[in-house]
Amino acid sequence: MAIVTWRRRNPSELAALRSGVDDWFDGFFRGLERPLEFLGHRAWPAIDVAEKEDAILVRAEVPGIKPEEIEISVYGNTLTISGEKKEAKEDQNDGFYHIESTYGSFHREVALPTEVDEKKIEAVCKDGVLSVTLPKAEKSKAVKVAVKG
User: Fold this and answer.
1) From CA 123, how far away is CA 125, in angstroms rounded?
2) Pair type for strands 70-75 and 122-126
3) Is the peptide bond before 45 cis (omega within 30 degrees of 0)?
4) Sign of CA dihedral 20, 26, 28, 31
5) Are residues 131 and 57 in contact, defined by beta-carbon separation less than 8 angstroms?
6) pTM metric for this prediction
7) How far apart are CA 147 and CA 149, in angstroms?
8) SS3 letters for 88-102?
9) Phi, psi torsion values for 11, nearest 5 degrees
10) CA–CA distance from 95 to each of 83, 90, 99 (Å)?
11) Is residue 31 exposed (0-12), middle (13-18) or buried (19+ Cβ within 10 Å)?
12) Segment-wise mean pLDDT, segments of 10 residues, the chain, 149 residues
């Protein structure tokens, strides 16, 4: 039979252990743009973000949503797109066997890679696609410098 001795732990060792475990759990989802996608959950609406020379272009799939049901705001370097997809008609007579239609509110935040000119932002919703053009602020645009020889 082996005798196991219990050694009293230093509180700082326990704090370091807890900190390490916390960092491990926190780091599991850190850096993932869509952390729950691997569980079958997909953020809605799906968005595309592209950076051009003069602007940031954001496209979002918003089928069935009217332009007046969408809210867009920019605060700092964050673009927020939110709204609600509403079902206008309820038909109790049809016996649905399977429904995949989605209704409800949505909220997406997009971290912008650079500062934008808030006064020149344009948004258009056509054929179920929301297109947001965010012109870059003058101080954020690249400047070409000639090299003298």
Assistant:
1) 7
2) unpaired
3) yes
4) negative
5) yes
6) 0.62
7) 7
8) CCCCCCCCCCCCCCC
9) -55, -30
10) 29, 12, 10
11) exposed
12) 64 74 68 52 80 93 89 92 74 64 81 91 94 89 83
Angstrom distance (rounded) from CA 13 to CA 145: 54
Model pLDDT, residue 32: 54
Domains of the chain: 42-85+104-139 (2.60.40.790)
Q: How far is CA 81 from the centre of its chain?
A: 9
Q: SS3 for 85?
A: strand
CB of 46 closer than 8 Å to CB of 55: no
Chain position carrying tokens 């007579």: 93
Assigned token pair, 133: 């053009």
Q: State the amino acid at position 92 in one-letter form.
A: Q
d(CA 121, CA 134): 5
Query: Is residue 49 within 8 Å of 57, Cβ to Cβ?
Result: yes
